[in-house]
Amino acid sequence: MNVLSNLKYNKGSKKNRKRIGRGEGSGHGGTSTVGMNGQKSRRGYSSRAWFEGGQMPLQRRVPKRGFTNIFRVNYQPINVDRIQKLIDDKKIEDGIVNQITLYKNGLLSKAVAPYKILGNGELKAKVTVEAHKFSESAKQKIEAAGGSIKVIEA
């Protein structure tokens, strides 16, 4: 029976949070939980992510050395034995190893990133391999197995 002494709030209707800026009776009055004076107590204050309170910032303390070439192309390496494993697991049907096949089988982290075939391991199957670059040993192993290579222009 609903009488005034039994009334309760619905579950989830009352949030347990600080109500700031609502006067002294709220328990958070006066400075509204931001402290007394200083920059952080003012309206509109926001600090930069790298600000360290006036201390010399980390990016200025750490010594700078060397040179970073912004035109460098980082190739993802794929060894010949990984291609042979895909063939053994029957994940390459048509005998063509290309960017899409390698990405779908988890050998490339990005579908559009350039990759290079390296010559570690053995290749027994005849396949056509498409890649941005090949090492000399990888070329020899692919052609020795009866396969062919195709260089993709980046």
Uncertain spans: none
| Helical residues, percent | 10-25%
Radius of gyration (Å): 32 Å
How many distinct helices? 4
Strand content: 5-15%
Q: Mean of residue pLDDT?
A: 91
Shape by Cα distribution:
elongated
Strand order of the largest sheet: 1-3-5
Q: Main β-sheet, in a few words? A: 3 strands, parallel
The H-and-E topology, N to C, reads as: HEHEHEEEHE
Category by helix and strand content: alpha/beta
Number of strands: 6
Distance separating the two termini: 77 Å
Account of the protein in words:
The protein is of the alpha/beta class and 154 residues long. The protein has four helices and six strands. A three-stranded parallel sheet has the order 1-3-5. The longest helix has 9 residues. The radius of gyration is 32 Å and the shape is elongated. The N and C termini lie far apart (77 Å). The mean pLDDT is 91.
Set out the fold topology.
Blueprint: H1 58-61, E1 76-79, H2 80-88, E2 96-97, H3 99-104, E3 115-118, E4 128-131, E5 133-134, H4 136-144, E6 148-151
Parallel strand pairs: 1-3, 2-4, 3-5, 4-6
Short description, anyone?
The chain is of the alpha/beta class and 154 residues long.
What tags apply to this protein structure?
single chain, 154 residues, 3-stranded parallel beta sheet
